[in-house]
From TrEMBL:
Molecular functions per Gene Ontology: DNA binding
Descriptive protein name: HTH cro/C1-type domain-containing protein
Top-level taxonomy: Bacteria, Pseudomonadati, Pseudomonadota, Gammaproteobacteria, Alteromonadales
Gene3D superfamilies documented for this protein: lambda repressor-like DNA-binding domains, Umud Fragment, subunit A
One Pfam family named in its UniProt record: Peptidase_S24
SUPFAM superfamilies linked: lambda repressor-like DNA-binding domains, LexA/Signal peptidase
All residue ranges annotated as the HTH cro/C1-type domain in the record: 13-67
Length: 192
């Protein structure tokens, strides 16, 4: 997906989220360009410079990386050292080094090649965000060195959910407030 296609998609999402009409004039004004220049850049007819992309990403409240590399095959999350992990209704602040005993929690961290997740027992999983999908789910590279299994992430309003292949295990919800960027991961076939 070209960056301007992702930008157009994110603009439409913003319009829906804010439940109001966001005009081309308003967007152009916020970015300091003419409506014609905005239209040309978002159609790919005119090259957009780095400053424009930075302003647009900021206006959309995403990182430039998310804007330029959004979609299913991009890295998914990058988080600060401390994030909030949802345990039912209760949000518990934790860091990557320790997870309180009994907390169904997971912390996300991105490396160049993998999406890493720290499990409640302190174990790690690695997901290759560029891997081929199996039944709409990214293949886990490893779970503490054991044989791969399957998991998938899905964005929900204000949080992310991690589901396991075992339907008897409740999804783990992660607060998105502390995420430093988010690149939407969307695959056909996912169900609520």
């Amino acid at each position: 997906m070209a960056w301007y296609d992702e930008a157009t998609r994110l603009i439409e999402l913003k319009k829906r989220d804010e439940s109001r009409k966001i005009t081309q004039k308003e967007i152009a004004g916020a970015l300091g360009v003419s409506q014609g220049a905005l239209s040309a850049r978002l159609s790919g007819k005119q090259k957009a410079d780095d400053a424009f992309k930075e302003k647009l990403a900021s206006w959309l409240n995403v990182s430039r990386l998310a804007l330029e590399h959004g979609g299913a095959k991009s890295p998914i999350y990058s988080v600060s050292d401390a994030i909030n992990i949802f345990n039912g209704e209760e949000a518990t602040p934790i860091d990557r080094a320790t997870i309180p005993p009994g907390l169904k929690g997971i912390a996300f961290e991105v490396t160049t090649d993998n999406l890493g997740a720290m499990l409640a027992d302190g174990g790690w999983i690695l997901i290759d965000p560029n891997a081929e999908l199996v039944d709409g789910k990214p293949v886990l590279v490893s779970v503490d060195g054991e044989a791969p299994t399957f998991m998938f992430l899905k964005l929900l309003p204000g949080k992310a959910a991690l589901f396991t292949q075992d339907r008897n295990i409740d999804p783990i919800y992660v607060n998105l407030d502390e995420l430093t960027f988010i690149a939407p991961m969307i695959h056909a076939g996912w169900k609520d």
